[in-house]
Write a structure and sequence with these properties.
Helices cover 43% and strands 16% of the residues. A six-stranded antiparallel beta sheet has the order 5-4-3-8-7-6, with helices on both faces. The protein is an alpha+beta fold. A hairpin with a 6-residue loop joins strand 6 and strand 7.
Length: 269
């Protein structure tokens, strides 16, 4: 009879499944076992077994000749219909990111709040992306909300009583080098709120800079942000890029469905 693995092993397996799925992006349409092993420093034997299991579950395809893996359609659909926020349910964010990358060639990041952390929920390196400034960024990365531009932006959208409590916890848990004064942090968040955007270090151990705005989310308790990521030494047209963000958000996210133009068909039953 099979034994139930310890809770710690279950957590490791869950983390490794997510890592595999997050590996695939515009730069990585296929992956070998060794690609996953090198990226996440995982054992080769267990990684090979995990990828085979994901193939059996219909989440990955395996090429029998190259022995490489790619995402299957099921991977894209899992969880989509269960989303209450139309940004995620209707694929609007994908259209938004594609538009921003095509228009500017810059890298685009999507960010959300996970506990007291900023998480990169989407990382899309454009053709003009400076790989030296953000070479190791990828989806799933997390760091404290107080340590990055996207974190400040999302904190500025949270109601003040809850935000104050989050800031106290962030400061209490921060290392000595990362601690901040309440006055300085609140001034920074007020600037984000007043300006409607942020332009500051992107964080996550990079030399990159983020120019970002909040997304019009339906859930005020779980803000999300989107922004361009570029080398901090570059000279950029801030006004032009902000206009690009606003236009893309208006076109891709705020356009309601015209119910009167939806053609309805009688059922076949």
């Amino acid at each position: 009879m099979a034994t139930t693995p310890p809770a710690s092993n279950k957590a490791k397996i869950a983390r490794r499944v997510i890592e595999v799925l997050e590996y695939f992006d515009d730069d990585h349409h296929e992956a070998t076992v060794m690609d996953i092993v090198r990226r996440y420093n995982r054992p080769q034997s267990s990684t090979s077994e995990l990828l085979s299991s994901l193939v059996e579950l219909g989440l990955l395809h395996k090429d029998p000749y190259s022995r490489s893996y790619s995402l299957a359609p099921r991977a894209a659909l899992i969880g989509a219909t269960g989303q209450s926020d139309s940004l995620m349910r209707d694929g609007q964010l994908v259209r938004l990111v594609d538009r921003l990358v095509a228009q500017t060639g810059l890298a685009v990041g999507l960010f959300s709040v996970v506990g007291l952390n900023t998480q990169v929920i989407g990382w899309y390196p454009g053709p003009r992306c400076h790989r030296t400034s953000a070479a190791h960024m990828h989806g799933g990365m997390q760091e404290p909300l107080s340590d990055s531009a996207a974190g400040w932006l999302m904190l500025s959208a949270i109601a003040k009583p809850r935000r104050d409590g989050m800031l106290r916890r962030l400061n209490a848990e921060a290392s000595e080098q990362r601690k901040f004064t309440s006055a300085d942090m609140n001034a920074r968040l007020d600037d984000c709120q007043g300006n409607g955007y942020v332009r500051a270090p992107a964080g996550f151990g990079t030399r990159a800079e983020l120019l970002g705005v909040l997304l019009p989310c339906e859930d005020a308790n779980h803000p999300m942000a989107v922004g361009f990521i570029y080398d901090g030494r570059d000279i950029v047209n801030v006004t032009g890029l902000l206009a690009c963000l606003e236009e893309a958000i208006s076109h891709c996210l705020r356009r309601p469905i015209d119910e009167d133009r939806v053609r309805r068909f009688p059922t076949a039953a």
